[in-house]
Every structure is written in structure tokens, then in C-alpha cells.
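Appendix B, record 7
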Amino acid sequence: MISSDIRSFLSVNITDKEILSGLKTVQGSLDLRAAKLKLVEPENIHFTLRFLGDITLGQKAEIQQCLDQLSFDKFSVGISGVGAFPNVHRPRVIWIGVSENQGQMVSLKMQIDDMLKTTGFSPEKQRFTPHATIARVRYVENREKLAVNLQSLSETVLGQMSVNSVHLMKSTLTPRGPIYEVMWSKHGSQP
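C-alpha cells (predicted):
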């Protein structure tokens, strides 16, 4: 039997061509001899505001209806700083962060979490750190060399990006990597 559940998440997508070009450059600077990495395709790099997991069509409609009430002013964020979770010495995920207006991204996420309570989603317990995953670590060959590489990229600055919409995304997992589709969008207003 085929599941009709939809693997989904809420995100701010990166569409700025200069930022995407900068992300490719950063990915090209990662030491592929120090670790086996799965680079995220530039068109798939995004800021996850909330991972929802598998939802039904009914839940999707409920989430969309709830988030139709979402209200935020467009804002811009500074994209900079390469890091890793849980840390550069034991990385599983390599990311780029938000330097300027991080608080506005956190506020947007908190507003979404608060609204989603009415649809049965409890707020996440983990502290939210706005970041966009650029690579997943498959295997570390040389831990020290990789840590030095990541620390050398920690001051990377890619520039400003406008946050003008939130998307409900569908994620279809394939052997070549995930395929993302926008299912719903909410646009911010002019400040």
C-alpha cells in the first residue's frame, strides 16, 4: 500500500542568485579529503522554520488555513558564518548562518510555532538557530583537518537576502536526493 502522507516543512527559500553563487563557492571550499560530504544542491538550500514530518492531506489543509493568518513585514538578513552541528569537531551537518536581523527570523519562527499549536503541533523544544544546511557529513577522514577547514570559513560573508515569503514545502526522497515542491506560500507585507 502506498502512503498518501506528505513529508513536509516550512521554510524561507533562498532564491537570490548572488547568494546562491556564493553558496556554491563556499561548498567548493569544503575540504573533501578531510570528510566524505553530501553537498546540498544550491536550488535546495533553504532556512527551515519548522519540520512537520509526514502530514495527511487533511492536516495540510488545516495547516494552510491556520497559516493564512500569518502576518509579517518583509525584512532582510545577512547571510554569513559557516558552522556545523553539533560542532566543528563532530560535524554531522555543515551550515551557513544568519548574522543580521537574526531576531526577526526567530520571531517569524515563534509566530509560526504559536499558530501551529491549534493544529496539534507542539512548539519545538530545541532553541532555534537560523541556518541553511549546505552539506551533510557522511564520514570524517581527518577530524582535525575538517575542523580547521570549517573554522577558516567561519567568517565568510555572502551578503544580504530579502525574506519576503514563507513556504510550505513537500519533500520527496529519492536515491539522488530530495525533490522539493512549494505547496503553499505566504508573502510578507512592505514595512
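Remarks on this record: The longest strand covers residues 75-85. The mean pLDDT is 94.
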